[in-house]
């Protein structure tokens, strides 16, 4: 049984307390939530609930859906976005006036104001520099996963959950359903398909494959540990889509028991200072706000072209899409 389910009934009776369900790892979220408590002159306490299972985001979302008639959670801190959008489409989130700077990327804010994205991971190509010794040899696009010259020597996580599932759902909206299905079929026959992004990063750092598609938080850990790896931000040419960012998301639950306290915490989390704290951490998360003062070490020196991701449209027909992808990768 997960940590969340063990604690699900233990909620505060203090009207000013706020109950947070967090899919971000406890080691990263707790110091920030503790800092919030210290800044509110003890007006607002935080009751934090984490799920420790490997499928924690799915577990948390299922609990939120189960509790919709009698909500326990005030604020959902998700470490990705697609399941947040699915809650949005179920009508389980409350609109909020997000205090973000001018020019904040529109794909990082819900069209109805029910969630806001911040502190992202990027979808990158991780290369073993002892296998590919010349940077001119490096892959440069996600599409290279289907290139026969890399047959059996590149890797990707199974795109049935997590950021890889989100990535290809976004591509479906940008390049079309049939083209994305064709690409997935080609990748399935060409790349090594592993259980997750962490496993892809480990396969690259060990030299089992020359390169793979993973997330920046998994890639930077291998680089920080001294393995011979390089991080490539893909699809940077003018005619390409750019690199996809997968943000953390904050959302206030509809009919939250403590909506005022939830709003205070949402405003506290959606700041450049919070993003800087996450950027300085082990996972080197990528600030979205222009007010950020700490460039994470995972970023390259040259500016990155970011993909404009239609996350809300990518969540449409999720169940039917997942069945199609499962048929390719089962």
UniProtKB/TrEMBL annotation:
Keywords: Signal. It comes from Rubripirellula lacrimiformis. This is Fe(3+)-binding periplasmic protein. PANTHER family: SLL0237 PROTEIN, THIAMINE-BINDING PERIPLASMIC PROTEIN-RELATED. InterPro entries: Ferric-bd. Pfam families: SBP_bac_6. The lineage of its organism: Bacteria, Pseudomonadati, Planctomycetota, Planctomycetia, Pirellulales. It comes from the Bacteria. CDD domains: PBP2_Fe3_thiamine_like.
């Amino acid at each position: 049984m997960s940590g969340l389910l063990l604690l699900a009934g233990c909620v505060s009776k203090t009207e000013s307390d706020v109950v947070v369900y967090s899919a971000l790892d406890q080691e990263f979220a707790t110091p920030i939530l503790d800092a919030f408590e210290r800044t509110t002159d003890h007006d607002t306490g935080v009751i934090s609930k984490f799920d420790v299972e490997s499928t924690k985001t799915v577990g948390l979302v299922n609990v939120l859906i189960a509790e919709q008639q009698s909500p326990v959670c005030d604020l959902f801190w998700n470490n990705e976005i697609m399941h947040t959008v699915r809650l949005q489409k179920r009508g389980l989130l409350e609109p909020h006036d997000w205090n973000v700077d001018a020019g904040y990327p529109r794909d990082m804010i819900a069209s109805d104001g029910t969630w806001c994205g911040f502190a992202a991971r990027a979808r990158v190509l991780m290369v073993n520099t002892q296998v590919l010794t010349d940077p001119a040899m490096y892959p440069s696009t996600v599409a290279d996963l289907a290139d026969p010259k890399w047959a059996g020597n590149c890797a990707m996580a199974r795109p049935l959950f997590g950021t890889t599932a989100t990535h290809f759902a976004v591509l479906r909206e940008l390049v079309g359903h049939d083209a994305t299905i064709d690409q997935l079929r080609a990748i399935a026959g060409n790349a090594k398909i592993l259980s997750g992004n962490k496993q892809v990063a480990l396969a690259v750092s060990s030299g089992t494959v020359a390169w793979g598609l993973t997330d920046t938080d998994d890639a930077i850990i291998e680089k920080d540990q001294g393995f011979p790896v390089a991080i490539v931000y893909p699809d940077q040419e003018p005619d390409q889509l750019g690199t996809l960012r997968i943000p953390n998301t904050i959302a206030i639950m509809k009919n939250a028991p403590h909506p005022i306290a939830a709003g205070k915490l949402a405003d506290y989390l959606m700041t450049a200072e919070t993003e800087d704290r996450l950027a300085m951490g082990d996972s080197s998360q990528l600030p979205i706000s222009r007010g950020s003062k700490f460039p994470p070490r995972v970023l390259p020196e040259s500016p990155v072209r970011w993909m404009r991701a239609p996350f809300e449209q990518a969540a449409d027909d999720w169940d039917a899409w997942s069945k199609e992808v499962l048929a390719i990768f089962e």
